[in-house]
Prior knowledge:
Blueprint: E1 2-6, H1 9-26, E2 31-34, H2 41-52, E3 62-65, E4 67-69, H3 80-87, E5 99-100, H4 109-122, E6 128-131, E7 153-156, H5 159-165, E8 178-181, H6 184-188, E9 192-197, H7 203-211, E10 229-234, E11 252-253
Parallel strand pairs: 1-10, 1-11, 2-3, 2-6, 3-5, 6-9, 9-10
Antiparallel strand pairs: 4-8, 7-8
Helix pairs in contact: 1-2
Amino acid sequence: MRIYAVKNYEEMSRKAANIVSAQVILKPDCVLGLATGSTPEGLYKQLKDWYQKGDLDFAQVKSVNLDEYRGLSPENEQSYHYYMKKHLFSGINIKAENTHLPNGMAEDEAAECMRYDNVVKRMGGVDLQILGLGGNGHIGFNEPCENFAKGTHCVHLTESTIAANARFFDDPEKVPEYAFSVGIRTIMMAKKILLVVSGKGKADALHKTLFGPINPRVPSSILQLHPDVIIVADEEALSQIDRSDDKSGDIYFC
Ligand code: F6R
């Protein structure tokens, strides 16, 4: 595990964008696993800027998102389809047919989960998976629970996640209670994982991710078992991390 310790959100976004750019340059037809939420917004903005300057080309890139709210159509401004269009896809030359998200409007839950797992399989897996971190340790919408979920599933979001995401909705009552999310197995099968973390609100979750017991009650703790994880985190997010906590010497601080 490598941790890039940066000062603030701007530096985190730029460093993370550098890592994604390197992936796209080294493998122009790579599969990017994408996250939504406020943390990667700056990273996506930076990628758009570099694309517009002619430094990046997404013509052959394929993408697969982690999750989508159940019951929201792509036209709904709070849907993750809408978010991706707004924050990334509309500003780069990725082909619409190469971008994938779960269908929040699917009526048959099991069929949609199977369809989405097959989408990821047909792509040959994810080269670089971008992740944000929930305050409760969720990754994708894999919420704290008794067992790590394997494939795509429909999740009943926890109250803390619904409350955290209410800031994106005009009416907090409208935050969906359910979402489709890829499973932990899909995330763990990515060749490389890039976790971006910013702010004090994530400090406890980041500490547990790195040093806590590997436990589905803190889903992100499973990342300790992945062979190639890069974390870009700012000072506030790292405020509970003491380098001497790394007894195993598994973490390389950059
Ligand atoms: C979103 C996702 C979530 C977010 C997490 C952090 O696609 O997968 O796991 O990454 O909820 O959200 P922010 O960045 O808004 O704090």
